[in-house]
Fold these 2 entries.
Entry 1:
Amino acid sequence: MKPIAIFRHTRTEGPGYFANYLDARNLPWRLIAVDEGAAVPDNPSSFGGLVFMGGPMSVNDDLPWIAPALRLIRKAVVDNVPVLGHCLGGQLMAKALGATVGRNPVKEIGWGQVEVSIGPEAHRWLGEVSAFEAFHWHGERFSIPPGAVRILGNRWCENQAFVLGPHLAMQCHVEMTADLVHSWLRSGAEEIAQSSHSPAVQSPDQITRELEARLAALHRVADRLYEIWTGGLKR
């Protein structure tokens, strides 16, 4: 089976629970550490799927790897190689597919409810789930690309996820682990302090409250999303 390519854009935002999911099912994957200078491939044909993780940068920044990543996503969609995006990764997918990415009205940091849209695509990806508590850490948002369908949203950010055939782009995070949460709290302490005026930014104490139970619930949703996504992998 072809490996899944996982693109890491900053060291603190690795695959987290997604890697655990793949390992438990013996699905091969390869980390492409863009943050360490790894080149973005020109062609998706060597991979069963492409996964883009998060990062503190903007897809509108003038970084050398962004244009190649956008080209790769577009080619993967044409070739029907499944693409999955988490936060920045979802924004990369949105921009590659013709949508816009810009500042969200408020910054979202911490746990927050997201609602599942009504419709066949949302039901295909999430079954009977109507809402769940996701993790958030973003200041920008994406619009929905032509032909795609919104499947998640909330009061602070209308578009939390969209799908286009086998491709899934998320603004929220479902890949969180306890290690990731604590790592982000350490590296993002100043950002939280500077953003405390936002009604959608939580304190570290709020974020870590009942953390294991929250993560367990989040992973149940992630399992469903990842199951549907991996079902479309190129073998």
Entry 2:
Amino acid sequence: MKVGPKYKIARRLGAQVFEKTQGKKYALREGEQRVVKGSNRPKTDFALQMLEKQRVRFTYVITERRLSNYAEEVLEKRLAKPEEKFFELLETRLDSVILRAGFAPTRFMAKQLASHGHFTVNGTKVTVPSLRIKKGDVVAVREGSKNKPMFANLVETNKDAKIPNWLSSDFEKKVINVSGMPTYAPTECAFNLTTVLEYYRR
């Protein structure tokens, strides 16, 4: 998926969309250059839904088609809390698991590592970042990639990392155990999946 200028996108969707725009450099730049046109104009419901949809797309760096497929899959099930299943589909992608488990510093890197075949799932080499990971799966750095520079300092770089409780990371063995499923907590997310689903219900 081609993303475009991250700073420009982050000004519209929020700094939390990209790892690159969550640091001091972006905050200082925005403080100096912030000029918002039409900021007092109230947004329509459709505009708000569209904005949330774009936040999710760029947060997970996925195409419109992929996101709409996830939404359709969830809505067809007619669940009481469809946003929870929606979140699960997004977070259990292979690239999301690699990122959350601390094996990549950014989602772009996680996608690249996955697509270049640096990981195995249950012992089988995989090259699909969108591969759906399930409870009980074991995701590991491929034997031939363990000595690559990007995996050299995992223990040191993750000493203060906050790994979700549904994942267990062994940085010395370079293994991720999936012990559960992610739980959707709206207050901890930079987007509102209920609003996104309202967009796809139209």
